[in-house]
Amino acid sequence: MAGEEINDNYPVEIYEVLLALESSLGAVDDMLKTMMSVSRNELLQTLDPLEQAKVDLVSAYTLNSMFWVYLATQEVNPKEYPVKQELERIRVYMNRVKEITDKKIAAKLDRGAASRCIKNALGEPKLKTELKIADKGKGEN
């Protein structure tokens, strides 16, 4: 479509949208070719379990999304098919994996260091005897 003349079968207003769609479909095609060039077992052996879960979830979500689009192009309401529930189920698992990932990379709190920083920033509280001596010194002036 890129570089071709505008077809009279669709309005000029959607020409850029169709070009973007063609570009996106090309990117998906390239990505799928890359994924298919490596065997699944080889790919999963190089990943840790969390990364394996991510690959599996993205693959399942992509396939179900593509099926959703296929149904829509066939003038079938995809909301009436179980694909909607499957996409939601996968989304829930993706959120769980994201939570686990976020917990892994979250900064660990060193309570001792934090306590020392706060004490240094605020200063040490004065003892009652020190306060009494300071008050006596003020009253004598």
TrEMBL record:
GO BP terms, alphabetized: maturation of 5.8S rRNA; regulation of gene expression
InterPro entries: Exosome-assoc_fac/DNA_repair, Sas10/Utp3/C1D
Keywords linked to the UniProt accession: Cytoplasm, DNA-binding, Nucleus, RNA-binding, rRNA processing
Molecular-function GO term, any one: RNA binding
One GO CC term on file: nucleolus
Keyword flag Membrane: no
Location of this chain's protein in the cell: Cytoplasm; Nucleus, Nucleolus
Similarity comment text for this entry: Belongs to the C1D family.
Subunit structure: Monomer and homodimer.
Function text: Plays a role in the recruitment of the exosome to pre-rRNA to mediate the 3'-5' end processing of the 5.8S rRNA.
Protein name per Swiss-Prot or TrEMBL: Nuclear nucleic acid-binding protein C1D
Species, as recorded: Nannospalax galili
